[in-house]
Design goal:
- Helix 2 crosses helix 3.
- The chain is 49% helix and 11% strand.
- By secondary structure, the chain is an alpha/beta fold.
- It has 12 helices and 8 strands.
Length: 268
């Protein structure tokens, strides 16, 4: 027997279906509509490349050659711990503009003493400092970036200096269209000048640019400048005892498990 449905009931059912589709999209389901952006810019250390394991491997190999016993992951953590404070010295005016390579070297010289890692030549210290130029990408990074490159302009927006980022791209096969970041504006993230420069240099509106990062602080700062934001989880960034960001907050427009998932959600 046919079932009679009133016009009001039909419209209400349609509205509920649309709401369900919209919710699925917001949760990253197959129905999600790609955000209208033209360029994706990426935090690099921790988001694109695995700095901790890469640095620890180089420290361990050098220590073994020199006959020194050292906790290489702990050394890498200590080196990274100097990252923020060294940039704050530039930001506060305690240091003039100083490239990240030089800041890394200042921290390295200190922790070599702290870890009693002695007997290194200047050449060995310089080579170790350039471990940051030889970081390995996360397993999904190159394939995911290659997919995204087909649809969007892609670029790092990193605190790393241009030579560091260029070497890193060559070493890890990162298919950037252009290299952006702190050195171009002589400001370190999270200074707003870095995020604004991405839109300015690419001749785009901030809303046409999406910042991709595994760190919510980076995304919050980008959001304040008007960039779109994508959060990609990197649960292993800080090692087994680390505390990475694992869930997005109000600053996040889109959340993804890795770069391939990000490409899928953006229709690439």
């Amino acid at each position: 027997m046919p079932i009679s449905v009133s016009r009001r009931e039909f419209l209400q059912a349609g509205a509920m279906a649309m709401a369900s589709t919209s919710l699925a999209g917001a949760q990253g389901g197959a129905a999600s509509a790609p955000l209208p952006v033209k360029a994706l810019v990426f935090d690099t250390f921790g988001t694109v490349v695995d700095w901790r394991s890469s640095v620890a491997r180089e420290v361990e190999a050098l220590a073994k050659r020199k006959g020194v016993a050292i906790d290489a992951p702990k050394f890498a953590d200590a080196w990274r711990a100097g990252y923020g404070p060294s940039m704050n010295r530039v930001r506060s005016g305690d240091l003039p503009w100083t490239r990240l390579d030089a800041l890394h070297r200042m921290t390295l010289d200190k922790i070599l003493v702290d870890f009693t890692f002695t007997g290194l030549s200047e050449e060995e210290k310089a080579s170790l400092n350039h471990a940051w130029h030889r970081l390995a990408p996360w397993p999904d990074a190159v394939a995911g970036l290659t997919r995204l490159k087909k649809k969007f302009i892609i670029a790092p927006l990193s605190n790393g200096n241009i030579s560091l980022m260029t070497d890193l791209a060559k070493h890890s096969g990162l298919p950037w269209d252009v290299i952006l970041g702190a050195e171009l504006v002589r400001h370190y993230k999270p200074d707003r000048e870095v995020y604004q420069s991405a839109a300015d240099i690419l001749d785009l509106k901030p809303a046409d640019v999406m910042m991709v990062a595994a760190h919510l602080g980076d995304l919050r700062a980008a959001k304040q400048v008007g960039l779109r934001t994508a959060f990609v989880t990197r649960p292993k960034e800080f090692g087994p005892d680390g505390k990475p960001d694992l869930k997005g907050d109000a600053s996040v427009d889109l959340s993804a498990t890795d770069f391939n998932d990000l490409a899928r959600q953006l229709g690439a």
